[in-house]
Amino acid sequence: MFKKNTGVGPHRDDITFYINGMDASFGSQGQHRSLVLSIKLAEIELMESITNESPILLLDDVMSELDNTRQLKLLETISQSIQTFITTTSLDHLQNLPENLSIFNIQNGQISVN
């Protein structure tokens, strides 16, 4: 009989992450987002070390779930060497951008650079 889904594979693995010795599944939404970002950044480092090429990082509305400290840390980390596109509906989260970052505003089909 066909199940119409895959019963085996990496999506079925159970992996537990810990933050300061505590199961991360009990963390806040910001901690969850930080954990996922940490894994993605580690994945980028691994890809760079294997291929000697840098991938482009795409982040969709990531700032809305991070506190100011985590926002700044993320921006500092990605601005060092990772070409990144961050989408957002509000520029309020991007007030403290490092100088080497650009904002592209798309409104009514027109693109402008701030």
Automatic annotation (TrEMBL):
Its main location: cytoplasm. GO terms for molecular function: ATP binding; single-stranded DNA binding. It is found in: Cytoplasm. Keywords: ATP-binding, Cytoplasm, DNA damage, DNA repair, DNA replication, DNA-binding, Nucleotide-binding, SOS response. InterPro entries: DNA-binding_RecF, DNA-binding_RecF_CS, P-loop_NTPase, RecF_2. Coiled coil: none annotated. One of its GO terms (cellular component) is cytoplasm. HAMAP family: RecF. PANTHER family: DNA REPLICATION AND REPAIR PROTEIN RECF. Belongs to the RecF family. This is DNA replication and repair protein RecF. It comes from Streptococcus oralis SK255.
